[in-house]
Design brief:
The complex is a heterodimer. By secondary structure, chain A is of the alpha/beta class. Helix content of chain A is 57%, strand content 10%. Chain A has two domains: 4-86, Methionine synthase domain (Methyltransferase, Methionine Synthase (B12-binding Domains), Chain A, domain 1), CATH 1.10.1240.10; 97-217, Rossmann fold (3-Layer(aba) Sandwich), CATH 3.40.50. The two termini of chain B are 14 Å apart. The chains are: A alpha/beta, B alpha/beta. At the A-B interface, helix 4, helix 7 and helix 8 of A face strand 4, helix 8 and helix 13 of B.
């Protein structure tokens, strides 16, 4: 059992490594946490994720921008890779399962990746299908993993219609009541989400995580 | 309310607006680009690669809808394709780079990019030809705007966005090198479009917005190149217009670097919370081209709602004293309702008369 002062120093170093966008520093701090006998779950929650949460806050305040948030997440994952094998499987409570991807015909995945990162830092089990994802792939994966939410992203008006197709496919397969659907991306709006029968719309990556959190706690209620 | 009678050509209307002079009414340019293919039933892959088909489509769309300016934006992969990026051409959707096979696979590949000749390269030469065809057919009556994607944007189409953004932090020198090489080709591309008859060049420095980069980061990686492109267009005899559909465009920085006559944008400038706030700060400093939401206009709003939306925009930009062009904030949705573009023109005739 490490003394409280040393534990706090290491946790602070883990958080600072993420904020400093420094993968090597995050790995070193994670190894130090293990060496000093700090509970790896605590090291993740109060170290790495605390740092990522602060990075997210700086993003909201426009101190950090997209590149900084992406590199901070690399530092987070680098530290996580060291600590995760030492954490008991049931230590992480999973608030919900999300299948996420960029819809067919679109390869702009930065926004989707930011949502994935933020959801993961909040403990969600995220199945990322990547970009240019066909409607059937979203539906099949959601069924396979027993997802709570399907999250659809696009940056282009041309490919917005593929969100509609995914929702329609859920209806066609009689699965619409089983999954909640959230849509997001620059051309989207609540009005469009309502029009296609999605459950929710999120205007940015930060709010997406909050909306997903609320969605998994709510009974199905399709917008519009 | 009656629509009134037009007294000027589209070109005259746009030219006056860009000088803060009031013509017969507010010019309207809903950025109908890829959507034009549906007027003649051309597939997207053909429209994007066949300048004759693209020109015929755009001309037919202009005659159908009555918009005041052509924007020669084909898609954002044009320049990257000519540097060697593999591009996917769907039959019914916008072409896009195959990011499973990016041209720049590692940071070292930034140094392998070589200058290309846009007058001979496959896709840029076709855009130049598109400008030429539009100029020959409509250049005396309708404004023709060439289009150049900024070098950092072009690079994003060859590296994939996330990898590029990380490289801005990890390998800034490599990115700077590639941006500089790409810009040499874009300078020639700019000149060639002006020579082909473009009245103006629309330069798209997409990453100069707070939704993506810090203002200093944009200036560091693309500011100097944007200035060179803008100076090139002006020296060749064309007007410079900035387009950026990002949220919170850094107007001060972009204007300082490029000195545009107008900025086409989808959101209020960085530092402005509302369009009214934006108009009070910027409407008299640079002509606004905006700001209908293309997705809502093309897919959600009714025609009556579009009329009201446009009326409010015209009202908001009355403070511009003529320096306003009604438009969508980004390309008109290629799959959107074309009647909605015509309704924007109708709104100008109903609510945008200047006397």
């Amino acid at each position: 059992m490490p003394n409280a002062q040393l534990q706090q120093v290491v946790l602070t170093e883990l958080a600072e490594a993420v904020l400093a966008l420094d993968e090597e520093r995050a790995v070193a701090a994670a190894q130090k946490a293990l060496h000093e006998g700090i509970d790896p779950y605590v090291a993740v929650q109060e170290g790495l994720l605390s740092g990522m949460s602060r990075a997210g806050k700086l993003f909201e305040e426009q101190e950090y921008f997209v590149p900084e948030l992406l590199v901070a997440s690399d530092a987070l994952y680098a530290g996580l890779n060291v600590l995760r094998p030492h954490i008991k499987a049931d230590a992480f409570g999973v608030p919900g399962k999300v299948v996420i991807g960029v819809v067919e015909g679109d390869t702009h995945d930065v926004g989707k990746n930011l949502v994935r990162i933020i959801l993961q830092t909040k403990g969600f089990e995220v199945h990322d299908l990547g970009r240019d994802v066909a409607p059937a792939k979203f539906v099949d994966k959601a069924v396979e993993v027993g997802a709570d939410v399907i999250a659809l992203s696009t940056l282009m008006t041309t490919t917005m219609v593929n969100m509609d197709e995914t929702v329609n496919l859920l209806v066609k397969r009689d699965l619409r009541e089983r999954f909640k659907v959230i849509v997001g991306g620059s051309p989207l709006s609540k009005a469009y989400a309502d029009k296609i029968g999605a459950n929710a719309y999120a205007r940015d990556a930060i709010s997406a995580a909050e909306v997903v959190k609320k969605l998994v706690q709510q009974p199905i209620a399709i917008a519009g | 309310m009656a629509e009134g009678r037009d007294e000027l050509s589209s070109l005259e209307r746009v030219a006056l607006a860009l000088q803060y002079k009031k013509g017969d009414r507010v010019p309207t340019a809903p950025l109908v680009c890829g959507a034009s293919r549906r007027v003649l039933g051309v597939t997207y892959d053909r429209w994007a690669q066949d300048s004759e088909a693209a020109a015929a489509s755009l001309i037919a769309a202009q005659e159908l809808i009555g918009f005041d300016g052509f924007l020669c934006l084909v898609d954002l992969s044009v320049e990257a394709a000519d540097f060697g990026q593999e591009v996917i051409y769907p039959a019914n959707s916008t072409p896009y780079p195959n990011f499973d096979n990016p041209l720049i696979k590692t940071a070292e590949d930034y140094y392998k990019i070589k200058k290309v000749d846009p007058r001979k390269s496959p896709r840029m030469s076709r855009v130049i030809d598109l400008v030429r065809r539009l100029s020959e057919a409509k250049g005396k009556s309708v404004a023709i705007m060439g289009f150049v994607y900024g070098p950092l944007g072009v690079l994003s189409q060859m590296r994939a966005h996330e990898a590029l953004f990380k490289d801005l932090i990890r390998r800034p020198d490599a990115v700077r090198h590639a941006v500089s090489v790409i810009n040499e080709s874009l300078v020639e591309y700019t000149k060639a479009q002006v020579e082909a008859g473009a009245h103006g060049i629309v330069l798209d420095p997409l990453f100069s917005s707070a939704s993506i980069l810090h203002r200093n980061t944009w200036t560091k990686f693309e500011g100097a190149e944007a200035k060179v492109l803008a100076d090139t267009a002006r020296d060749a005899g064309a007007m410079v217009i900035i387009h950026n559909c990002g949220n919170g465009v850094y107007f001060e920085d972009v204007i300082e670097k490029t000195r545009p006559v107008a900025i086409s944008h989808a959101y209020p400038a960085f530092g402005s919370q509302t369009w009214t706030d934006h108009a009070s700060k910027w409407a008299k400093k640079v002509v606004t081209i905006g700001y209908s939401d293309p997705a809502k206009t093309g897919h959600v709003l009714t025609q009556d709602e579009i009329l009201e939306d446009c009326r409010q925009q015209i009202e908001t930009f009355k403070v511009a004293e003529g320096g306003f062009i009604l438009s969508t904030g980004c390309e008109f949705s290629p799959g959107g309702n074309l009647l909605s573009a015509a309704t924007m023109v109708k709104a100008s005739k109903l609510y945008g008369r200047y006397n």
